[in-house]
Amino acid sequence: MKKIGFLSFGHWSPSPQSGTRSGADALLQSIDLAVAAEELGADGAYYRVHHFARQLASPFPLLAAAGAKTRRIELGTAVIDMRYENPLYMAEDAGAADLIAGGRLQLGISRGSPEQVIDGWRHFGYVPEEGKSDADMARRHSEIFLDLLRGEGFAQPNPRPMFPNPPGLLRLEPFSAGLRDRIWWGAATDATAVWAAKLGMNLQSSTLKFDESGEPLHVQQAKQIRAYRAAWKEAGHAREPRVSVSRSIFALVNDMDRAYFGGSEGEDHFGYIEPEKRAVFGRTYADEPDKLVDQLKADEAIAEADTLLLTVPNQLGVDYNAHVIESILKHVAPALGWR
User: Fold this and answer.
1) Residue of 240, 238, 179, 218 lying closest to 304 (CA atoms)
2) Is 244 helix (H, G, I), strand (E, B) or coil?
3) Distance from C-alpha of 190 to C-alpha of 200, rounded to nearest angstrom
4) In whole angstroms, what is the distance from residue 49 CA to residue 58 CA?
5) In the beta sheet, which residues pair with residue 155?
6) For residues 255 and 311, what is the distance between their CA atoms, to the nearest angstrom?
7) Buried-state track 261-290, b at ≥16 Cβ within 10 A, e below 16
8) Are 82 and 141 in contact (CB under 8 A)?
9) What does residue 25 show for φ and ψ, rounded to 5 degrees?
10) DSSP 166
């Protein structure tokens, strides 16, 4: 069995060809797709966070709204860029959204990808300490956030408060028990995957990864996952970790599918997402269901992961994206033993 969810970047464009023409469209359709995915039997609705872009950017109002409209499906991010986050305010927002959803949040966090503007986190008021990088700052914000989610008091109470306080040092409220175990790190390298394991975070691996061996993405990811699990075991954590990989997978079951994705290239690509950092970009899987089954059986990283996130072309509309998800659940997942 494997958990299967969708991952949406929430792109929107005022173009007449887009089915998602405004920020309002992107948010409301994201909620509608979570509801539709739950009805279809999918396990997760995940959203990407990008600042200064015509995409989803503020995850917690969206997660809270989706949590209020659904009952079973996991609701998550992949990923929140921690360079931009105040970890204390984020802990309050995350606690509130998780309580509204009944403990279903699965929050992916990370250093984030290259953004639309230069050093966008500076506009949010964050500057790395002297001698530190923006990646160091993101990891520090993450460590603070994780500590806050333990729910331990740390703030000295006012001796003459407006309202009575419980005894001892105060923590941030609202606190949601169990959320600490549902934080994931989006790792682009083997080293950051090992770091995440040591801190007790679950692992997310995307459709791209910094190239560390020249091998196909799925091979590099599988090695990354195995290194992560070894580090987790060495750290001695009590629970079992979770691991997700993201993939673009389209079952071609009708003429519309073939028109949209029939000509997709079935190969990985190598390129530069950042200067001097070569990356491997995962292929798109698009084929008849029986052929997809054979192709996906050979994907080593999918085999290693317990959760698969299907990247969806959200600008094609809620109905079509629900069809994309249903096609995988109905025509592909059972043949692979995922259902």
Assistant:
1) 218
2) strand
3) 15
4) 7
5) 170
6) 20
7) beeeeeebeeeeeeeeeebbbbbbbbbeee
8) yes
9) -60, -45
10) -
Short-list 224, 220, 218, 203, CA closest to 299: 218
Structure tokens at 159: 């001796």
Residue 1 burial (C-beta neighbours within 10 Å; 0-12, 13-18, 19+)? exposed
Question: Cα–Cα distances in Å, from 79 out to 257, 307, 316, 336?
Answer: 28, 15, 22, 27
**Separation CA 180–CA 91 (nearest Å):** 10
pLDDT in tens, the chain (339 residues): 899 999 999 999 999 999 999 999 999 999 999 999 999 999 999 999 999 999 999 999 999 999 999 999 999 999 999 999 999 999 999 999 999 999 999 999 999 888 899 999 999 999 999 999 999 999 999 999 999 999 999 999 999 999 999 999 999 999 999 999 999 999 999 999 999 999 999 999 999 999 999 999 999 999 999 999 999 999 999 999 999 999 999 999 999 999 999 988 889 999 998 888 899 999 999 999 999 999 999 999 999 999 999 999 999 999 999 999 999 999 999 999 999
- Going 259 to 263 to 266 to 267, the CA torsion angle's sign is negative
Give dist(CA 242, CA 249) in Å, integer.
Answer: 21
Contact 225, 203 (CB under 8 A): yes
Give the residue carrying structure tokens 């600490």. 180
Q: Give the predicted TM-score (pTM) of the model.
A: 0.96
Asked whether 109 and 82 are in contact (CB, 8 A), the reply is yes
What phi, psi does 114 have (nearest 5°)? -55, 135
Question: How far apart (Å, rounded) are the C-alpha atoms in residues 282 and 280?
Answer: 6
Helix (H) or strand (E) holding 64: helix 59-69
Tokens for 302, please give them: 């999918």
DSSP state of 298: T
247 sits in the region (left: phi over 0; alpha: psi -120 to 50; else beta) called: beta
- For residue 35, say if its preceding peptide bond is cis, omega within 30 degrees of 0: no
